[in-house]
Structures are given as structure tokens and as C-alpha cells.
């Protein structure tokens, strides 16, 4: 269904240099090639982490969701038919895993259209963030602080808005693909995105979408930890032989 390519984890060379496409990686991983499944994880780790973070409330819980999602995905690789992109297929698994994890903790998460508010967004919230003015040297020096402020503000959004904002603004997923992943209509995605931006603008008082794609990064040690955990779990089940 969706074929837009994903940016791999740029912090790990194998995610960038592996020449195999998703279809080949799935085929090889299904046959027991651990390196193929590692490449799948490194290629989609950031997307899945951000997806999970749109539903759960902290980074550690999101990392657990990603690990569980990969374990579920591996057992279902034979069911992947390529109707949607591999990234989209994995995102749907991550969303369902995150919702299940929340429910096990007694937290009810409802992302479908029934959760939508009846009122339409106010006219001022229909405004896009737009292109910000040129940053001053001081503003550039404070980029990390701005990112932290934005992450905190996004984290404070209700899950129905946070999940849409992260997919749309942080991962740059299309309206249609976001709707498919969350199981809602395209109009619902548009409405929730507008409301999420309005809430963030009210909280932060400035235009900040230009910084959105730098939030909730997932690379380096955390990326390695997910890959290592999942591969060792699969090895323990006798599904892979680690070298």
C-alpha cells in the first residue's frame, strides 16, 4: 500500500550500507538469517521507537514496546505479503503492542474515531506552524534546550494527539499512512494533527515544528540494546544462531 522509504538509523553503518531491500531482508530473516533481521531492526528502530513513544509515557517503556514488537514481528514474518511497506507493517504491530502494554497496566488507550472530540478545531488552530524566522546565534546555541522543551510538551499531549503528531510531524508520515497505521480516517488524522499543533503552540508560545524531527532520537547505545536483546531472545528460542 505505502512504498515511501524510511530513513535508517544513521548512527550505525550497517543500517546505511546494507544493500538488501526490505523484501529480501524479510525472506532471509524468515530463513533464519540473523544478520537480515538485525538489518530490519536497525533500519526501522527509530520509526518504531517514536511510534511507541506516541502512545506510552516514557522512553524506557517505549523501548520495551519496540523489543516486544520485533519479537512478535519475527514470529509473523511469513504473514508479511508486501501489501503495505515493511515499515508500515511494523508500525501497526508496534501500535498494537503499545496499546496492549498500557492496558496490562490498567491504562485504557483508545485511538479510534470514537475517541475524537465532537467539536471542530478553532480557526486559530487551523493555522500551520509555517516557516520560522531565521535563528539568531543564541537560538542556535540553545537548540538542545529547545528540543528538550519540545519533547516535554509533546509528551504532555494526550495519546490520541501525541501519536498523530509524532507520526506526522516527527516522522513525516503521510496523512493516509498515518490513518492506516492508527486505524482511523484521514479526516480524523487531519483534525487531531491540527489540535496537537494548537496545544503545543499554546504550551510553548512559539513556532517550533522546525525542531520536531530532532525529537525522540533513537540511536547509539539504545539502538544497540534493542538489537542485542531481540537477537538473544530469538537465539534462546533456537530460532537464530549467533556468531
Q: Could you give the topology of this structure?
A:
Layout: H1 13-17, H2 22-30, H3 34-53, H4 59-75, H5 86-104, H6 137-141, H7 143-155, H8 159-170, H9 175-182, H10 186-204, H11 220-236
Helix pairs in contact: 2-3, 3-4, 3-5, 3-8, 3-11, 4-5, 4-11, 5-9, 7-10, 8-10, 9-10
Question: Can you walk through the features of this model?
Answer:
The longest helix has 20 residues, at 34-53. The protein contains 11 helices and no strands. Mean pLDDT is 80; it is low at 1-11 and 118-135. It has 243 residues and is mainly α. The protein is globular, with a radius of gyration of 18 Å. The chain is 59% helix and 0% strand.
Write a compact overview of the structure shown.
It is built from 11 helices and no strands.
Model regions low in confidence, pLDDT < 50 over at least 5 residues: 1-11, 118-135
- Kindly estimate the percentage of residues that lie in beta strands according to DSSP: under 5%
**What summary fits the major beta sheet?**
none
Please bin the fraction of helical residues: 55-70%
| pLDDT averaged over residues | 80
Task: Report the count of strand segments.
Answer: 0
Radius of gyration of CA atoms, rounded to a whole number: 18 Å
Net shape:
globular
Tally of alpha and pi helices: 11
Order of helices and strands: HHHHHHHHHHH
Judged by helices, strands and strand pairing, the structural class is mainly alpha
Distance between the termini: 36 Å
Key traits:
243 residues; mainly alpha; 11 helices; 59% helix
Amino acid at each position: 500500500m505505502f512504498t515511501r522509504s524510511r530513513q535508517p538509523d544513521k548512527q550505525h553503518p550497517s543500517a546505511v550500507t546494507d544493500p538488501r531491500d526490505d523484501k529480501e531482508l524479510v525472506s532471509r530473516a524468515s530463513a533464519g538469517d540473523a544478520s537480515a533481521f538485525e538489518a530490519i531492526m536497525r533500519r526501522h528502530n527509530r520509526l518504531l521507537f517514536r511510534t511507541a513513544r506516541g502512545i506510552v509515557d516514557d522512553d524506557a517503556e517505549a523501548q520495551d514496546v519496540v523489543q516486544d514488537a520485533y519479537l512478535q514481528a519475527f514470529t509473523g514474518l511469513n504473514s508479511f505479503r508486501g501489501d503495505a511497506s515493511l515499515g508500515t507493517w511494523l508500525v501497526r504491530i508496534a501500535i498494537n503492542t503499545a496499546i496492549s502494554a498500557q492496558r496490562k497496566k490498567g491504562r485504557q488507550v483508545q485511538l479510534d474515531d470514537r475517541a475524537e472530540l465532537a467539536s471542530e478545531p478553532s480557526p486559530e488552530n487551523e493555522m500551520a506552524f509555517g516557516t520560522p524566522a531565521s535563528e539568531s546565534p543564541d537560538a542556535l546555541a540553545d537548540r538542545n534546550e529547545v528540543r528538550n522543551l519540545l519533547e516535554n510538551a509533546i509528551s504532555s499531549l494526550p495519546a490520541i494527539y501525541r501519536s498523530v503528531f509524532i507520526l506526522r510531524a516527527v516522522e513525516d508520515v503521510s496523512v493516509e499512512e498515518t490513518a492506516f497505521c492508527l486505524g482511523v480516517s484521514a479526516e480524523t488524522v487531519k483534525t487531531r494533527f491540527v489540535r496537537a499543533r494548537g496545544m503545543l503552540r499554546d504550551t510553548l508560545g512559539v513556532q517550533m515544528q522546525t525542531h520536531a524531527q530532532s525529537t525522540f532520537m533513537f540511536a547509539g547505545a539504545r539502538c544497540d540494546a534493542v538489537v542485542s536483546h531481540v537477537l538473544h531472545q530469538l537465539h534462546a528460542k533456537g530460532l537464530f544462531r549467533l556468531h
